[in-house]
Design brief:
It is a single chain. By secondary structure, this protein is α/β, with parallel strands linked by helices. It has 2 domains: 176 residues, Rossmann fold (3-Layer(aba) Sandwich); 196 residues, Rossmann fold (3-Layer(aba) Sandwich), CATH 3.40.50.150. Helices cover 26% and strands 27% of the residues. The strands form 5 sheets. It has an 8-stranded mixed sheet, sandwiched between helices. Strands 16-15-14-17-20-22-21 form a 7-stranded mixed sheet. A 3-stranded antiparallel sheet has the order 11-12-13. The longest helix has 18 residues. The radius of gyration is 22 Å and the shape is globular.
């Protein structure tokens, strides 16, 4: 089980980081899975005093974190969503939404949160070191932080030269210079080869039925469709209620559920949404790869970067909502995101609209759906691990 970071431990660690590298010397701070119940390092490194001294860029891999960082910086600039290219530092935007640790900017000193999974970790480190090398500054380095059970120890063994700069409680700080390289690793004998191929578009791709799913390390179930989503799609096959109307795929990941339903039902208007920036990029590329977003006409499929059912959904109603709701944030379990979503889901359904949800059987979402005001809540299908629940807005 992953270690839960408490406020005291995080504060003690990041004050130690600030002693070695003040906020004023950071060019970029990158956060990806930072716990929502804690202040971010922007506050912790400054003893709770806010933005004092920090003149760099905050880069967030999630919409939810980007909004928290903007609030802590008391930023009046609108959130800049960067999908490609280099943002202009003169435009006043201090918080960038991106999965690259510097949003492709040159950098001198980066403080970055370690992602989950070896492939995602190596991708982030490689991107950060490339950005550092482009700065041309002597002494440019990446400072990587994470929990000892989250991969920071093995990252130190893979990337050389590197050294542990700080270790307090469950957290560790790893310093990696711009000239570091990754040591070739032996393949894991117990791990099957990933059924994914990297294409020229920069994404990995795997096949699901007649679709090509674009994916990246760090996105949920990035090597192949997960069995829960497969069960949901099997259960909804032949559902004539999806032939027309509007559908939201909430927490879409790489877009396999939304893209499959869009392909099955050519008149269905599909919106895909995720908090994770890399998932949004993958979902967009999945739609493009399968001809579901024609460039010469208004698309019936759209992808939104949004935290939960946030401001971008204001006033919208959907005839159907489908979801395989997340219950992990990095290595930590996070059930609150799904609970918040379910508590408000009725408000985003049209009259007589349906919510279809798949999850682990032990989570038992039925009572939460009933508490949210949904009617006719029942299990449509289940196997030894997963269950598909459905509910309806009746008034």
């Amino acid at each position: 089980m992953a270690v839960r970071i408490d406020n005291h431990g995080a504060e003690r660690f990041f004050q130690g980081v600030a002693d070695q590298l003040p906020l004023s010397q950071l060019s970029h701070l990158f956060l990806l899975h930072w716990p929502q119940h804690l202040p971010t390092p922007l506050t912790l490194m400054n003893n709770g005093a806010g933005e004092s001294g920090f003149r760099g860029f905050g880069v967030a891999g999630r919409v939810s974190l980007a909004r928290v960082m903007a609030k802590e910086l008391q930023s009046t600039a609108s959130l800049e969503v960067v999908c490609a290219g280099t943002p202009d530092s003169r435009d006043g935007h201090r918080i960038l939404l991106h999965d690259h640790p510097t949003a492709h900017q040159p950098a001198t000193r980066i403080l970055a949160e370690l992602p989950q999974g070896r492939e995602a970790q190596d991708r982030l480190i490689h991107n950060a070191l490339t950005a550092l090398s482009h700065s041309g500054e002597e002494g440019a380095e990446l400072l990587l932080f994470g929990t000892k059970d989250g991969g920071i120890v093995s990252a130190a063994k893979r990337w050389k030269p590197s050294n542990t700069r700080l270790s307090r409680g469950h957290l560790r700080l790893l310093a990696i210079p711009a000239n570091a390289t990754v040591i070739a690793r032996k393949p894991r004998k117990t791990r099957p080869h990933a059924p994914v191929t990297q294409e020229q578009d920069g994404f990995f791709h795997y096949g699901y039925r007649d679709l090509s799913i674009a994916t990246l390390p760090g996105v949920f179930s990035w090597r192949s469709i997960d069995p829960a989503s497969h069960l949901l799609l099997e259960t909804l096959e032949g559902n004539s209620a999806l032939d027309t109307g509007t559908l939201l795929d909430w927490g879409c990941g790489a877009g396999v559920i939304g893209a499959t339903l869009a392909r099955r039902h050519p008149a269905l208007q599909v919106t895909l949404s995720d908090d994770l920036f890399s998932a949004v990029c993958c979902a967009r590329r999945t739609l493009e790869s399968n001809g579901l977003v024609p460039s010469d006409a208004a698309s019936r499929c759209t992808v939104i970067a949004e935290d939960g059912l946030g401001p971008l959904f204001s006033g919208q109603r959907f005839d159907t909502i489908v979801t395989n709701p997340p219950f992990h944030r990095g290595t930590r379990s996070d059930y609150e995101t799904a609970r918040r979503f379910l508590s408000h889901s009725r408000d985003y359904l049209s009259l007589h609209g349906h919510l279809h949800l798949v999850g682990n059987r032990f989570l038992d979402y039925g009572p939460l759906m009933r508490a949210a005001g949904l009617a006719r809540v029942k299990s449509l299908a289940e196997n030894e691990r997963y269950a598909v629940w459905t509910g309806k807005r009746h008034r």
